[in-house]
Amino acid sequence: MSLSVDIRHRQGDFRLEARFESAGRLTALFGRSGAGKSSLVAMIAGLTRPDRGHIAVDGEPLVDTERRLFVPVHRRRVGYVFQEGRLFPHLTVRRNLLYGRWFTPERERYTSLDDVVDLLGIGNLLNRSPARLSGGEKQRVAIGRALLASPRLLLMDEPLAALDEARKAEILPYIERLRDEIGLPIVYVSHSVAEVARLATTVVTMADGRVTAVGRPSDVLSRPDLAPGADEAEAGAVLKAVIQSHDDTFGLTALSAAGGTLTVPRLHRPLGTPVRVRVRARDVMLAVDEPHGLSALNVLKATIHEIGEPHGPVVEVRLGAGEAELTARLTRRSVSALALAPGREVYAVIKSIAFDEANLSLAPHYSDSADAAADTGQ
Amino acid sequence: MPDWFTLSAEEQTAVLLSLKVALWATCASLPFGVAAAYALARGQFWGRPLLDGVVHLPLILPPVVTGYALLLLFGRSGPVGAFLAEQFGVVFAFRWTGAALACAIMGFPLMVRAIRLSLEAVDTRLEEAAGTLGAPPLWVFATVTLPLILPGVAAGMILSFARAMGEFGATITFVSNIPGETQTLPSAIYTFTQVPGGDAQALRLTLIAVALSLSALLVSNALSRRIARGIGQGT
């Protein structure tokens, strides 16, 4: 799948000028609320018409203002999962699911009601009315409804934003299954670093109606300047790792990551499984000498690459640990007391329990070459 | 002591004719009512305030004026009336069809208002969602919009029906008061009040009119509750 976007649009005072290409399996549009992510997705779906520009999926244009081409929304076969679900209140769950089925020619349908019901675990909901579903159930039905129309591209506009943490944790594995098992290309709008780090194969960051970066999550998310939508407390780095060993006595799992070995709470996956670890900047401590008598289990040798611009009492320090990059959030006072400077060797300390479930996820099955094809359109 | 329970043939005719006229008026104006309501609720065109005014005109004009305008337009020598009679053999003047037309026009603003209100309450984001699932606009209207506005449509139909049952001024001006053809319930009541000894008949028909209107109201309330439950908006 390739998605190519180059549009200009004006809506009142807001200007949207976005240009990017992505060949990623799950392209995350990432940025603060009001950055233009949802407007952009509405244009890909055909719900709004850009003033100028073009949008194409797999080389097939959906909009091209120069050629006066506009494919109406119902002919695009672009699925859409909305933040608020938007289930039809007058239809049962089953009829909601089957609503879009008849509009796709039979030979192009790639899924069936049974498969979708299995995939999303919604078999017991079929005869209910949407009014009697929980938020998480509604969202699963909304995903199923979009899937059954057999779209060639699925747009998900903050599908988890209205849910609490427990419900998010309930839905995330299903989105991973869409990405990996069905292989449906997805454009995923989010302002949550945790979601993007867990799901994305390509990240497009946006700010004030413009695209600020396009690239792999591990590259883009570790740069605080490029993740402007990031909740400050959530900023951090993403590392790739492989499960090395399990320790059942203490309920831990050792990961072999680019920067060294990481010990995290027990993951119930076989050895060798590739995983993605998000290390939040606020969870990283620095020591100038090798620490002893420390409760934290993860101590990585690292080199300071860069000391960021201080904001208030806080400074972000970028580190290299082997091939991995980490960010540590420190006070300005510590930076000065330890005389931290670029090039200096330090030890990065991370508590194992900093890796909660939201920060550990299965790595998507993608090859680096496909990933690299998501080059920037800048 | 008058016989309260047996209707004379004349009275029966008037009641049945009124029901027929009101039913036809309501059903035949429904598609136009939905279309006008849709244009007013969703349309973006320059003539919208004008259409709004024209639709509401029968509500504010004296019914006699509406009836006279109908006579001028749809009478045998009126431009529309002559055309319809010549091309399709449809005649309104002094026929029950004319009474139905007059009732439809008089009830039209009430019907349009009710449907328009419910259309404005429909969440258009549901229609967008249906579009992203591949449904073409007309299909979206039939399967999403229409089911969601059914309570409004039902209310509009009942209002139009009740208005038709009570319509007097425009009908009598347009199609006169011919027993068996255009003498509806209100016209019959009016006639009986004009002849000596007709009081009992007038009173009996009045009670029937009250009963019919009241049951229409009750049915409409029950119906909207049921429909609202069906679309998950009721309790």
Describe this structure in words.
The complex is a heterodimer of chains A (378) and B (235). Chain A has nine helices and 21 strands. Chain A is of the alpha+beta class. Chain A folds into two domains: 3-230, 3-Layer(aba) Sandwich (Rossmann fold), CATH 3.40.50.300; 236-362, RNA polymerase II/Efflux pump adaptor protein, barrel-sandwich hybrid domain (OB fold (Dihydrolipoamide Acetyltransferase, E2P), Beta Barrel), CATH 2.40.50. A six-stranded mixed sheet of chain A has the order 7-8-9-3-10-11, with helices on both faces. A five-stranded antiparallel sheet of chain A has the order 2-1-4-5-6, with helices on one face. In chain A, α3 (113-120) runs antiparallel to α4 and α4 (135-148) runs parallel beside α5 (165-182). The relative contact order of chain A is 0.14. With 235 residues, chain B is mainly α. Chain B has one domain (19-230): MetI-like (MetI-like fold), CATH 1.10.3720.10. Chain B is built from ten helices and no strands. In chain B, α1 packs antiparallel against α7. The mean pLDDT of chain B is 89. Classes of the chains: A alpha+beta (378), B mainly alpha (235).
User: How many structurally independent domains of chain B?
Assistant: 1
Helical content of chain A stands at 10-25%
Largest sheet of chain A: 6 strands, mixed
Low-confidence stretches of chain B: none
Q: Could you say what the CATH topology of the largest domain in chain A is called? A: Rossmann fold
Percent in helix of chain B: over 70%
The biggest beta sheet of chain B, please?
none
CATH class of the largest domain in chain A: Alpha Beta
> Total number of helical segments of chain A?
9
Structural class of chain A: alpha+beta
Mind telling me the CATH superfamily name of the largest domain in chain A? P-loop containing nucleotide triphosphate hydrolases
Main interface: chain pair and counts: A-B, 28 and 21 residues
Mean pLDDT of chain B: 89
